[in-house]
Design brief:
alpha/beta; about 45% helix
Length: about 450
């Protein structure tokens, strides 16, 4: 298009736009009528203008996100078969979750990305246990693969209320694995997705991820480990489309600032999954729509790896159909919707830039407050983090219960003939297990649980 065409029109300032809107409102107050405030305290305007936008500098290269298949390891041969099948159908990385040690060689036998050498395959581990000997074995296989151990001892404390063994023993294992890690091994991770699924606001998620990661930067700095190249940050994204894009961008910006304070250039490897907090048991097909927009937010926000959530994962055991649909959603976005290298597409959008700026500013203030009061771990042990998340979760729950926050098909336009009692293969609600804990754990909970329990009772 000829640029001269635009020169024929006079530029319009932000002030002129606002004056025109004010006239059209016919006396109504501009702020009351058109400006709304989010739970994070972010004021959203009806329009954004270049003159009012501050652009943050986020160091990121144009990259293609990796499609990850998450597999639970109960039997090594079965998990190996499922991984090979997923890789042959479009997945480019694998996440293995396990509750106990397993035969590593059997699990990773002959795993390759279709059309590529095994060197390009990224394998993520989500281990719900801590074993030094087992971790040492995992480091050995990193000579053949890019291995992400996702060791997050603080995340386990936040989730379960206990250390794996004790604070001293957990740190001893962490430092041992850091000392022998190869160039192909990424040891550390931060589970920020847990805070989102428990009801934390977007600003809290960014600030807590930053403060959580800072605890590990202190460990790395004290050990002078210059070889640590990145920390994996696990985020969950919900359906607030533009806010979620801005959340991931704001975190990357702040993490780069924080790493520079330690004299490091350290990347934040973003491993992103759709949130479970807004997923529903009834009218479950709507979950596919939710996860599609959430995966789009993850891509545009700069995710390195995305593992989608199956639409029926709340109530069905893992099955071929649900997993295939979830994987194909990402393949369609990547190949048919041309999101292959879309991590920088949001750059320059006045609205997204403004949201990124506000989230970063508020999260940085919260991070500074956490550090001023002793750091993330100390505030976790004091129960401050738990209390803040509970407050935001309660507020969000009230909004859902009052119909202000809508989950289509659940608290808005529900299909009252929908029956689910006979479909349940899994227990879809919070499980309470009374036990002795060092701290109060942060509990994940879906918004629709209470409503769904009442419906199930009345079927």
């Amino acid at each position: 298009m000829n640029d001269d065409l635009f020169n024929e029109f006079e530029s319009v300032t932000s002030k002129q736009w606002k004056q025109k809107i004010q006239v059209d409102l016919k006396g109504a107050d501009y702020n009351d009528a058109l400006v709304w405030e989010s739970n994070e305290g972010i004021k959203v305007k009806p329009f954004y203008h270049k003159n009012d936008t501050e652009f943050l500098s986020i160091d990121s290269e144009r990259k293609q996100f990796s499609i990850c298949q998450s597999i639970f390891v109960s039997d090594e041969k079965t998990a190996n078969f499922l991984a090979k099948d997923a890789l042959s159908r479009g997945a480019t990385s694998i996440e293995f979750e396990a509750n106990k040690p397993f035969n590593i060689r059997q699990l990773v036998k002959e795993l390759t990305v279709q059309g590529n050498s095994e060197d390009s395959l990224q394998i993520y581990f989500k281990l719900n246990f801590l074993s030094e000997d087992f971790l040492l074995e995992l480091v050995e296989i990193s000579l053949s693969f890019n291995v992400f151990l996702n060791l997050d001892i603080i995340g386990n404390l936040a989730k379960t209320g206990n250390w794996f063994k004790s604070i001293k023993e957990d740190h001893k294992v962490l430092e041992k694995i850091l000392s022998i890690a190869t160039d192909n091994t990424r040891v550390l991770s931060v589970d920020a997705g847990h805070y989102q699924n428990a009801g934390a606001t977007i600003v809290q998620q960014v600030a807590y991820a930053l403060a959580h990661g800072n605890e590990y930067l202190n460990v790395i700095a004290s050990e002078a480990k210059q070889s640590i190249q990145s920390i994996v940050f696990n985020f969950a994204v919900s359906s607030n489309y533009f806010f979620e894009i801005a959340k991931l961008r704001a975190f990357q910006y702040l993490w780069q600032l924080l790493a520079k304070e330690y004299g490091r250039t350290m990347n934040a490897n973003l491993f992103v999954k759709p949130s479970l907090r807004n997923k529903t048991l009834y009218d479950y097909n709507v979950n596919m729509l939710r996860t599609t927009t959430e995966c789009m937010s993850a891509i545009l926000g700069g995710a390195d790896v995305i593992s989608n959530v199956s639409y029926d994962s709340l109530y069905h055991k893992k099955n071929e159909f649900g997993e295939r649909i979830a994987r194909n959603q990402l393949l369609i976005l990547q190949e048919e919707s041309h999101f292959k290298q879309a991590n920088q597409f949001a750059d320059g959008s006045y609205y997204i830039e403004a949201l990124t700026n506000q989230i970063a500013e508020k999260a940085l203030d919260l991070f500074k407050d956490i550090e001023k009061n002793g750091g993330f771990l100390k505030q976790l042990q004091a129960g401050t983090i738990q209390r803040k998340i509970e407050e935001s979760a309660t507020k969000e729950q009230q909004q859902f219960d009052n119909g202000e926050l809508v989950l289509l098909g659940t608290n808005k336009h529900p299909n009252l003939t929908d029956k689910m009692k006979t479909e349940l293969e899994l227990y879809p609600f919070v499980k309470i297990k009374p036990r002795k804990t060092v701290i109060k754990p942060i509990i994940e909970k879906r918004l629709a649980e209470k409503l769904e329990q009442e419906r199930l009772k009345n079927e």
